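Team,

Forwarding the record for the chain on the shared tracking sheet. I've put the sequence and predicted structure together so nobody has to dig through attachments.
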Amino acid sequence: MDGKKTSRIAFVSTMGGVPWGGSEELWSQTALHLCESNHDVAASVYDWPTRPGKLLDIGRAGGRVSYRPLKRKLVGRTLEKIRQKITPGPLDTEAMAWLSKEKPDLLVISQGGPWDGVPWMTACRSLGIAYCPIVHAHSEIWWPMDDDLAAGRAALAGARRVFFVSNANRNMMEMQCGMRFENAEVVVNPWKVDSSTPVPWPSDEGITDIACVGRMDPRAKGQDILLQVLALPKWRERPIRLNFYGDGPCEKSIESLANLLNVQNVRFRGQVSDVRSIWAENHALVLPSRYEGLPLVIV
């Protein structure tokens, strides 16, 4: 290999709820692979106080990672409003400047929700940049308003590809847009466990251990549903133990709910990096999500 970069590929993550999640694995692993394959790679993500290690890995591999402000101070918000009045655009000034400067051959937009990437897609269309959104999650509660529908349809129809991580998400998007996407494709999220060696069945001491693995956020993951079920008399008497794995923005409120309902057979295990150890201790998985794409815990 002569060292010449072969393609300019850029990535944008629109996930702003937490610093990292399962949706970030697909694009970040792809970006790292492209860096190692001698492509020119750039990425734009929100700037959290603690920067995830996988973003640092992309930088060490030669990629350029740009950090957008998660929240602007009052002065910054005021200046941006003035700029938008003078020169209206789909993105804020800094994001538009980054995209114009990078001018990639392809922009991959990893969306935290189904519509987050529309401004980026609209900006790409105005600059003549090819783009591909990845739709990681969708739900009936995210039905588009009529005022937003035309922009969303045009943005998705103009994509080189629209990637979904499940057929259910694709079907939901097509129903909400009232159109079929001929440019749609379903891709599979990466898995993080070596499947060549089976995990031994956990010991059986008369109690069935059930794992609920995911971000501690009932709005998406539905941990509150499990606690309400376990609070029912017939479930209190059964020899089961629920183990919550993960961290997130609602840990304290979930623990408070468990205390309120006096659910005793539940343990909060925190974030665990060794996924195999979870299945070495648990007999089953339960996932009461209110909405999903293709959860990595299932893959």
